[in-house]
Amino acid sequence: MTTSQREAALQGLHDRHAAELWRFALRLTRDPQVAEDVVQESLLRAWRDPALGTRTEPQARAWLFTVVRNLVVDRWRSAANRHEVAGIDFVEAGVADRSGEVLDRWLIADALGSVSREHRQVIAAAYYEGRTVAEIAAELRVPEGTVKSRLHYGLRSLRLVLQEKGVTSP
Are 165 and 106 in contact (CB under 8 A)? Predict the structure, then answer.
């Protein structure tokens, strides 16, 4: 791939995805400048990637969102971001790093906002409150089959939203 072809491919990626990547990074970082830096770094990595012109549009989009997510996780975990002093360990021994879990919760909460209210309601009741299908059906005054159907299609929608964000693979 020639330099001009790489530039054109990168310009196309930027034009199609930069705004949405920035919004995604902003939701994760809550800092516009950091979000902009993360998007620039992700596009720089796309430029350096030998597979730049060989990916399909959905693959390129998923790859970019994954890069943004990983860059945010790396920034969040970095000692400089937490203003740690080198050589001093403030964390108790045996305490696990839960930063990935926290980021995953942010991503899932954001993705849940994209599914319908009915689907979100049954997913939250079943998975966050630990309630049974029968309990959910009784509260919502709908048949148990409807609750099962809403759970099935709600989780399916949630999975698609997460795939679009590059969090999970298809």
Answer: no
Q: Report how far residue 36's alpha carbon sits from residue 127's, in angstroms, rounded to the nearest whole number.
A: 34
For domain 3-77, is the CATH number 3.40.50?
Answer: no
pLDDT one-digit tens code per residue, 114-158: 899 999 999 989 988 889 999 999 999 999 999 999 999 999 998
Residue at 166: amino acid letter: G
Cα(43)–Cα(17) distance, rounded to whole angstroms? 10
Q: Which ranges in the chain are annotated with CATH 1.10.1740?
A: 3-77
Question: Is the pTM for the entire model greater than 0.85?
Answer: no
- Per-residue tokens: 155: 């989780």
Q: How many CA atoms within 13 Å lie on the side-chain side of 122?
A: 28
Class (C level, CATH) for 99-164 = mainly alpha
